[in-house]
What we know:
alpha+beta, two-stranded antiparallel sheet, 21 strands
Amino acid sequence: MLRQIVVVCLFLMALGVLSAQYRTPVSGDAAVADSYVAWIQHALTEERWADAKEALQRAHDFIDVASDISYLQALLSLRENSPRRLILQTLRQGIEANRWRRYNADAARLLEAEFLIHIRAYAEALETLARISPAPEDLRGFPADTSIGSEVLYLRLRALLGLKDYGAFRNVLGDALEQYSQDPRMARLLFRYGAQKNPEKPDLDLIATVLRRLPLLIKGDPELAYLAAPFIKDPGESYRLAASYWAQYGANPDAVPIALSLGVIDEEAAIRELFRPAKHPDQTLILDKALILSVFGLLRHNEGRDSFKRNLIRFSGVLFDDIDRDGIPEAYTRYQEGYMEEYTYDEDQDGEAEWRIFFRMGTPVRAEIAIAAEAEGERIKTAVTWEQYPWASRAVLEKTVFTFRPRDFAVTLVRFTEIGGSFPLGLLYPDRDVLASRLTKRSLGAFAAMIEQPSGEFAGAVERIELARGVPLRGAEYLNGRIVSITEFLFGLPRIQQVDRDLDGRLETIRYFRREAPPPVKAGAARQMEGYPFEYRPAAASAESDWDGDGIYETGEEYFPDGTVNRSWDINKDGIKEFTIQTAER
């Protein structure tokens, strides 16, 4: 669904057939690695994805011998829409090994910078680009007509726009327009920049330069015709450009607003073109939410507005939202006959959604939400089920199930607005709730009425802990439907536990716990206590067991902080344990 034009260009660019002059004879592991690289490259060029994946799996043992394998793995991962952070790790592995045959480190760094821009790591992208030579003699990995210098400048400009360093952006763009006057990407960036910001005098000078070259640039990118139209002072010339593009290409939803505003098409034609079924393999219509709002705002007649609304309320397809207008959408909403079916939100644009909400007849019923894991940089998915949005009924985090009281725990991710008119004629759209608090293990535990998790003592058993406002009250473990332990808590910590250690159906053992506070949290390790109280348990102080059920505890154990255990026995069953030994382990 993503319109990642630049990424696709890099992908195709890297798959160009390379001349034999860059290859040198090799032997041993290097020869085997080189044969794998050739196999993978050929499979990717012919779009035989399964063969490429199989070859990469076999080539993994040679990843330190040929950096090309890491590079090709990154390209395949890109095609499979893998998380961009994982692709970055793969690319960096190849760069660090620095053993190139068919590609080179500059090719990998260009792709690395592209993905850093995707995840908004703009400063890091600029650092990566600074390590690339502006015009290296070695062009392995690029078709003969490719200038690495233009690629570097183009990515620098995107990074500077992301940093909102408009002064540096103007300076670099001025150089780029002089050095690569026929590269239409620079003009496209300038028009995008000008559309989002009121152009100042230096910006207008750059725009004037591009407009003078427009007839030549349009040959490389016909869409510049309608992108440039808003910046042309002569209405007749703007109309001519937009009309010429529409006559040749038409059916481009992005061109509808300018064509409508200039009178190239009427309202009926604009609505027809906007909602025309897409020519995608799955026939999915994919539209920008901002485009919907823009076209509706241009309609001046009631007939057009009514027609627009009729199309919108039975819309089937996907609306995407590029919230920060950086060219990379963060949110997607899938509709069927006007009802929301699924919403995804990728906050950091790394290709792995933090939120995924599923709807039934337009009503949220469940969600997958990524929360921070204990390992730095890792995230784990929480499955939340709503009884009635936003009130959650349960949540599943890894192997732990949280159950909430009715209408007690609100998980609000989105708020609903009507677009394209007022309710009931508008289309409901889920806008992210900027005030929504982040979900954590601690918040789940604080509101849970019950926690269910695997037993830490009995294989296959389930432990259920009852809580009041996050404070454990009572716990029980069940194995095959039978209770094997019961734990009573005092002030949230275990006080006494009855256990069926021999699984004969009787809770013959009683354990007593020390009254100790949780361990202090070390600086910089705040997430260590995210799981408290359902993960932290103080150690038992002692235990007694009545194995034959006669009311006399025949054995006892006393546990010490250093790990030693005093084990004692009541041999004659007089209530006094006469024999004691000390062991080094429990």
